[in-house]
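Supplementary material to the annual report.
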Amino acid sequence: MELVCPAGTPAALRAAIGAGADAVYCGFSDETNARNFPGLNFSREEMGESIAYAHAEKAKVLVAINTFPRAGATAIWRRAVDDAVDLGADALIVADIGLLDYVARTHPHQRLHLSVQAAAANPDSIQFYVDNFAVRRVVLPRVLSVAEIAAINLDASCETEVFVFGGLCVMAEGRCSLSSYATGQSPNMHGVCSPASHVSYRQEGDALVSRLGDFTINRFAADEPAPYPTLCKGRFSTKSGSGYIFEDPASLDAAALLPALRDAGVTALKIEGRQRSRAYIEGVVRAFREALEALDSGRPIVTSGLARMTEGQTTTSGAYRKSWR
Amino acid sequence: MRLTLGPVLFHWGPQVWRDFYFRIADEAPVDAVVVGEVVCSKRAPFYGDVFPDVIERLAAAGKDVILASLALATLPRERRQMAELAGNGLFMVEANDVACLQHLAKRPHAIGPLVNVYNEATAAFFARQGARRICLPPELPLQSIAAIAQSEPNVLTEVFAFGNVPLAISARCYHARLHKLAKDNCRFVCGNDPDGLAVDTLDGERFLAINGVQTLSHTCASLLGDIPDLAAAGVGALRLSPQLCDMAAVALVFRDVMDGACEAGHGHELLAAVYPEARFTNGFARGMAGAEYV
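Predicted assembly:
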């Protein structure tokens, strides 16, 4: 299986490749990619140099242009596509149907991957993108169990890529406006979710309250860790109970499921976290490279090194085991 | 401008559901009615017996009947259901999942608000595939709405104009999770909250509403005051999403404001009287946080 790793900077890209990434995904520093954070991502020049570096190291670069182009301003996204093609990107990761159509018509030989932001969660959706835009690989949403992934691979006429580590969307990706409801900034339109610019904290006696826009997302006792207030991972109250009603603030770790994912016919494994530090990326990529080598040689997979990388958060195998089905 | 009644997103049970649509057929000044289970495939069997009566009554009343697809299909049974719906041969189908489009291409169809149409290029692709109506995603600002509507004059552009705003869909059922039940053995607890389960912040402020696998705003969108701007943008229809209030009366208020028979400010007062529990918002259309109202 191919190991696909995140890079928010050229230095992170080199670190990921050095640690054993087969491919690195990254984006331009603007609203065309779904990690549009200040100080992150690549200028055109950096992208060109990074692609050359990766190719010299026999690694691939996948360029994410995976927000939904703003009506009346699609030229910005089309220019990102044209530039990524010119710079020699090995694949483009795209979610928007209008932009997929543009790539398929304008650059018919460019390898296209369907972004997780398109949330293609069943064989019919996947086939729609294969038939219409010749998509070669689909990044599967994090709503599927391993059995469902295996069933998709039996039906699908393209490769599949699945997330194995990092942040975990609990809603269908690309179909969530929770962030823009509270802040006006959305993953689909602005490439950000629960943006730091709208986060505030205030001390109320012994409690620390985290807020997003005008809404309280969580309240922590003095001895409690206070994870970032991503909206769907907040604590709320209802007449039927209170707490983490959508999802505990856990991150995904599917390292133990690598044999099952291989048997399910998965082509590529994806690590989330373009916003993460170079040291984090290096550590996680190295751990997964070692896990894959163990898998290939029939040795047990040891993943203890990964626990340190989750910053004290609990981890979950997400929907892959679907204990709640 | 036309009026569309969107599908009932909540689990009302067959009797209430049938009576609701009979009254809509008899009394609501809407041009089109979208019918069908969008949120959870497990609910659909409850409505099987009354579905034909509802369709017949609406069609007999002169409403354009449009059948809605499920929003997120993962199970084989859900995919079969989608294929059957698309092949019904009698009524236009509204796709709420791209999977449904695999069965609808080259035939006249509708695109629902849960399919991502953010720009004119995507609208143009769908129009070439046979889309005749597109209800845009609720988070789009007026500027985007105008750019899309004006680029596809032959497609009826519709905007989500009333109701709790659908914000997210998940494979996981939050009603079941709250009640510590597995999704496959959920006892249909979502039926206890026919207007959604209110989700408050820890400060006790109303925030969201849970409806099974769907999350909505707790506030109710109302674009009553935005009607002149929407008309100028080229919007062809407004969608009213059923809530637990007199939807025939809601439709009448919108109809009167659209026709100029009632001034928007007075319409707003009437709407507040019809649905006193509601706090109204229009932030998304105005390019702000969805929870805002201007």
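Chain B touches chain A through 76 residues (CB under 8 Å).
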